[in-house]
Amino acid sequence: MFNYILDLLVLASIFAVVAVGLNLQAGVSGLPNFGIVLFFGIGAYGAGLATKASLPWTVGLLGAVLVATAAALLLGRLSGSLPGTYWGIATLAIAEAVRVILFNQDSVFGGAQGIGGVSLPFASLPERTRLILCLLVMIAILAVCLAISQRLIGTQFGRALRLQREQPELAASLGHDLIGVRTAILIISGAMAAAAGVFYAHYIAYTGTSELEMATTITVWTMVVVGGIGNSYGVVLGALLIQTLYSTSRFLGEALNLSADRTASLRIMLIGFALFGFLMLKNDGLLPERLRKIRA
């Protein structure tokens, strides 16, 4: 049972890093990115390819972050001038196009089978010790991402992000480079998601196109909405709650004697109910965004 709790916390920490990055875009900047899994997948495949080439995990991490940065820069420049709704559709389409390409590319990316045998961290240690060390590593990474997020939000750059979210025309009239701001925040959040993808692939010893599916996008978005869009600490709480719901629903499937496919569908259905419920009843989340008030 203790190992199960540790495993749940490790996975929650990994997806909390992705949620913190998404919150910088959707919550702070007002950019509905439905392709955040693209960067998560870049990280996961970076870990898989590094293992396949017998390279250290640090090479996979560095390569994934660099590729994610380049992808974010390209994506920001290509669709940077699009309004928020069209931006969301564009990111979704690009992520899905990449998923289809990877799914049909066997020689390098493993196609539908993905890349197995990704090196496990601390593999020589006992299972409980390995899980504890993985959790400590992910907590440290999450703490760094939270510190970066909070630092950005509290600066002039963060205020420019919020102004772009609330009054984009005013932000442009004041001389803010909207495309540059959008691209910068996409690079930062993309690097976070890529780093999380690297550690996710190493943790489960596998990477495949499942990391790029729409279900992953919905799950991360639900974490942000449930926790409190715009609040970095809130999305971490949301990640913990939704990952707990996702993991424990497996036992519900076993209790109902459902097949593996139906259990997976049940999990997604429960995530959908959670998202719908919070949107209807408490759309500001458990920890709503708090804007700092400055006296005139």
Query: What's the Cα radius of gyration?
Result: 19 Å
Coarse shape:
globular
The percentage helix is over 70%
Largest sheet: 2 strands, antiparallel
Which series of helices and strands comes N to C?
Answer: HHHHEHHHHEHHH
Q: What are the low-pLDDT stretches, counting only 5+ consecutive residues below 50? A: none
Estimated share of beta-strand residues: under 5%
Q: Number of helix segments?
A: 11
Global structural class: mainly alpha
Average predicted confidence as pLDDT: 88
The first-to-last residue Cα distance is 55 Å
Number of extended strands: 2
- The strand line-up of the biggest sheet is 1-2
Model description:
- The longest helix is centred in the first third of the chain and has 28 residues, at 2-29.
- The chain has helices at residues 2-29, 36-52, 57-79, 84-103, 127-153, 156-166, 168-173, 178-204, 214-227, 232-255, 260-281; strands spanning 115-116, 206-207.
- It is 74% helix and 1% strand.
- Helix 1 packs across helix 10, helix 2 (36-52) packs antiparallel against helix 3 (57-79) and helix 2 (36-52) packs across helix 8.
- The chain has a two-stranded antiparallel ribbon.
